[in-house]
Amino acid sequence: MRIGIFSDTHANIEALTAVIKAFESERIDRLVCLGDTVGYGASPNECADIVRKVAAFTILGNHDAAVAGRMDYSYYYDAARNALDHHANVLSKDNMEWLKALPYQVREGNLLFCHGSPMNLEEFEYIFAPEQAARCIDIWDQLGDLTFIGHSHLCKAFALTQEDVFEVVADKFQVRKGHKYIISVGSVGQPRDYDNRASYTIYDTAETTFEFKRVAYDIEAAAQKIFENAKLERNFGNRLFIGV
User: Quick one: pLDDT at residue 223?
Assistant: First the structure.
C-alpha cells in the first residue's frame, strides 16, 4: 500500500490543490492528513471541504483545536490569535463539527499518526531536532515502528534505537529493521525550511520506503487573498514567498 501523508495546510487552498494533484500521479492508495487544516491562510472552508473528502482520516492539529474551542490559545501572538478567531467565525457548521471530533492520534498496525510529539499529545510539543526525538525513547513501547507527525513545518526524519537517535538526511530512504522512526512530514501551506514549495510525503508499506516530495504552487494567488483580507496579518502572505 502507498500512503500519501500531508500536514499543516493552514487554509492555503492553492497549495493543497497542487498537493492533491501531485498525489494523483503517485499511485496513492489512501491519503492521511496530520492536522492544522486551518489557521493563517485565507481559505479555511475550502481546505476543510477538500480534506474531509479525500483523507481516510485526519488528526487534530493545534490550530484545529484552537478554532474548535478545544484548547486555550490566549497566549498565541496577536496575529495568529486573530486569524484563529476569524476562522472560528467563518467556518461552516459542518466543518466546525468535523474539527471538534478529530482524534489526537490514530494507530494502524505498526504505524502511529499524530500532529506533534507522541508524548503529551494535548500539549502539541515540537520535534525538529535529535534531542527532542530522543525524549520519545522513554515511551518506546507506545511508539509506532513509524510515527508520523507534522506541526514543525519542517521535513525531518529521526531513527531511534532504545539507546540512541540519529537524523536521517535523505529525501528517500529504506526503513531499517531494529529501529523506530519519527518522521515530520513538513507543511503543505506554510513551509518553514526556506523551500517555498508545498510539502507532501509517501510511505510504501510493501517496499518499506519513505519519501519527501515537493510541488510548486501559485504562491502569488495564495498571498494575494491574505493581503486582501483585513482580518489576516500581511506577513502570513509575505512568508509564503520565502518559505519561512
Answer: 98
